[in-house]
Amino acid sequence: MRFFIQESRDPGLHDLTDGAFGMRATDDYVELEMRLDDSCLVMYAVPYGPRQVAFVANLDDEIDVLLDDVSGATEEQGRRLAAEYPTFARLLFNGEQDDLASGALLPMTDPDTREETVVVAVLLEGVDTGFPETWFDAAGMERLQLLTELTATLLDENHERTTITL
After folding, report:
1. Residue 125 belongs to a domain with what CATH number?
2. What is the number of structural domains in the chain?
3. Which is the most buried residue in 41, 55, 57, 138, by most CB within 10 A?
4. Is residue 120 part of a domain?
5. Enclosing H/E stretch for 5
6. Residue 148 counted as domain residue
C-alpha cells in the first residue's frame, strides 16, 4: 500500500488540521491520512468480506521485532510477553481467533506489491463494499477511532523496549 496523499503534497506537514482526514480511493482500498500533532497516521479501508470492511494500519518494521521475538516462544515466555506487551499480545491472540471486532494483528497481502505484511485491523460490518462513502458514517468513525487508539498504544508499548526479554 502506498502513501498517495502524503506524496501528493509538499514534504512535511500539510493542510490537514489536527484530527481531520484526507482520503484517496484506489481500485483496491481507500487510503486515509490523519494529522496528529506534528505527524500523520496513515490507515486503509479494505473490503474484507460480504458487507465487511477492514480498517487497517500497516506498521511494517514497528512490530517486526516483536513478531520475530514471539515466534517459537515457550508458554512461559508467552506469559512474560503478554505482561510486557499487553496490547500486542491481545491483538495477536485476537488475530489467531479471527476476532477483528476487538482489533487484531493479521497477515494481509498488500494489494500494490503483493507482499505479505502484518496489519492492525478492525472490522466494520453491514456496509455496501461497492460504495466507500458509506464506510465513514458514525459506526465507521467509531471503528477508525478504535484502530487509532490500538495503533497508538501498540506503538507506545513497542517504543518502550525494542526487544523482549524472554
Report:
1. 3.30.1460
2. 1
3. 55
4. yes
5. helix 4-7
6. yes
From the list 32, 39, 38, 37, the residue with the least C-alpha distance to 122 is 32
For residue 12, the 8-state DSSP code is S
Q: Based on the number of CB atoms within 10 Å of its own CB, is 74 exposed (0-12), middle (13-18) or buried (19 or more)?
A: exposed
CA dist 41 and 57 (Å) reads 8
What DSSP string runs through 61-78?
HHHHHHHHHHTT--HHHH
Q: Measure the CA–CA gap between 33 and 147, rounded to whole angstroms.
A: 13
- The amino acid occupying position 65 is V
- 164 grid coordinates: 523482549
* Residue indicated by cell numbers 518502550: 160
Q: Which of 36, 38, 40 lies closest to 8, judged by CA?
A: 40
User: The domain containing residue 72 runs over which residues?
Assistant: 4-160
- The reply to whether 165 falls in a domain is no
In one-letter notation, the amino acid at residue 124 is L
Amino acid at 130: G
Q: What is the pLDDT of residues 123-162, one digit of tens each?
A: 999 998 888 888 888 899 899 999 989 988 888 887 766 4
* Partner residues linked to 14 by β-bridges: none
Q: How confident is the model over 23-60, as pLDDT tens digits?
A: 778 888 888 887 666 666 778 889 988 889 999 988 76
